[in-house]
Amino acid sequence: MSEETTPAKPVLRVVRGDLTEEELAALVAVVAARNAAAAHAADRRPARVRSEWGHPARQHRTPLRVGLGQWRRSAW
């Protein structure tokens, strides 16, 4: 039983110029590295959502006042 395979579509195609083997190898290395970096970036976990409890903006609140009933009002 013989299976015929269709040739794969080329990933790179040199349209103009006369590349040497070294230049073509460098081009393939750059494209492969870029694709590997993009694939690696897609595999990373999404950033953790920061808890609002320790957010620096919470440090800028109104000062607590001393007086009758102020302890109860400090939570509002």
UniProtKB/TrEMBL annotation:
It comes from the Bacteria. Residues 39-76 are annotated as: Disordered. GO terms for molecular function: acetyl-CoA carboxylase activity; propionyl-CoA carboxylase activity. Coiled coil: none annotated. Residues 41-55 have a biased composition (Basic and acidic residues). This is Acyl-CoA carboxylase subunit epsilon. It comes from Aeromicrobium phragmitis.
